[in-house]
Design brief:
Elements (H helix, E strand, L loop, with lengths): L1 E6 L8 E6 L7 E11 L1 H8 L14 E9 L11 E4 L2 E3 L5 H4 L10 E2 L11 E5 L4 E2 L6 H4 L5 H11 L7 E5 L5 H11 L2 E6 L5 H7 L3 E4 L3 H5 L5 E6 L7 H6 L1 E9 L11 H7 L2 E4 L5 H13 L6 E5 L3 H9 L6 E5 L2
Parallel strand pairs: 10-11, 10-13, 11-12, 13-14, 14-15, 16-17
Antiparallel strand pairs: 1-2, 3-4, 3-8, 3-17, 4-5, 5-9, 6-7
């Protein structure tokens, strides 16, 4: 099958029309006609080869929404015409101990949707059936794409930390990931403490559902929530005062990062020992948890705040993201 896509031919290049052939459909593979695809900062990192994992030409796009149009002979649980979503991962081995325990997203041999293969800035994409997540009835297809990446990224820590509706939870960084974390936690029933260094965003953050906004640059405000939080989710990719944040966490609580902080995190051992605190991290989530997250999102009408561009205007969307103007997620609609 011929695929019409947009690709970067070299690092940091503008995307140009690109056509390629998918070849014969494998027994466990699914072909998807794409209606929408979210545009994540990770796509920009792959375009630029920031992680030294890109091969060119590269077709970005890993927040894919579409319709099943082709099924291999050994696929399971899907039918032609099903609406599905595909996130960062496109395949896993399905046989290792990790996969058999249900943690497919941690499989050592998993295939990422845009690493060594072409993604969703296109009219079609191919994936393993297990990673074509069937979408719940009634989901808003125009806003669902970022849930396959940002949504599951912040939903997973809530499950990992066994957060209860009576818990207080902190969120560091109220952007594309952070605003979704607030939405999930609000529907979970939690008290939500948002950490922000920009006082101009305070009312907007409260409107999202945060209970309180803490100025992360003010030691007195940080001290006011000493030993209060069951979980603090860090969505930023910058070095912070980890000692101060650990002080806000209650005994047996967690500091959990989903932001890829480039420098080593300096974690004072005494903060861990004194209250049996833990530091953890995670990537996205399993297919099963992703399905649960989507069902929760539909039940509580949780969607990202999105800006929509036509797929053909992808370079305008890139410039918008580079300029830091995205509020808060960009979605490309196929035209």
């Amino acid at each position: 099958m011929k695929v019409n896509a947009y690709a970067a031919l070299e690092p940091k290049a503008a995307l140009t029309p690109y056509t390629y052939e998918l070849g014969e459909l494998g027994a466990e593979q699914v072909d998807i006609k794409i209606s929408h695809c979210g545009f994540c900062h990770s796509d920009l990192s792959m375009i630029n080869n920031d992680w030294e994992a890109s091969t060119y030409p590269i077709v970005p796009g890993h927040e894919i929404i579409g319709e099943v149009i082709g099924l291999g002979s050994a696929t399971k649980g899907l039918q032609i015409g099903d609406k599905v979503g595909v996130g960062w991962n496109a395949a896993s081995c399905m046989s290792c101990q990790t996969c058999m325990e249900g943690a497919h997203h941690l499989c050592a041999d998993k295939e990422s949707t845009i690493v060594g293969r072409h993604g969703g800035f296109a009219d079609h994409v191919r994936t393993h059936w297990s990673w074509a997540i069937k979408l719940p009835t009634g989901i808003d297809l125009a806003k669902a794409g970022p849930l396959l990446c940002g949504g599951i990224t912040v939903f997973n820590p809530i499950i990992m930390a066994d957060v209860k509706p009576t818990d207080s939870v902190g969120v560091i960084g109220i952007g594309g990931l952070g605003h979704l974390a607030i939405k999930f936690l609000k529907s979970w029933g939690c008290e939500i403490i948002a950490f922000s260094s920009n006082p101009d965003k305070t009312q907007a953050i409260l409107d999202m559902g945060a209970t309180r906004v803490i100025d992360s640059t003010d030691p007195e405000q940080l001290a006011s929530i000493d030993r209060k939080l069951k979980l603090v989710i860090n969505t930023t990719n910058v070095t912070l005062n980890w000692d101060a944040y650990l002080g806000t966490i209650k005994p047996k609580g967690f500091l959990h990062t989903v932001g890829a902080v480039p420098e080593d995190m300096e974690i004072p051992a005494r903060r861990l020992i004194e209250a049996e605190r833990s530091v953890s991290g995670s990537p996205l989530g399993s297919p099963a948890l992703t399905k649960t997250m989507l069902e929760f999102a539909v039940r509580h009408n949780i969607y990202p705040i999105v800006e929509e561009f036509a797929m053909s205007d992808v370079n305008q969307a890139i410039d918008h993201l580079k300029a830091g103007k995205a509020r808060f997620r960009i979605v490309l609609k196929n035209d």
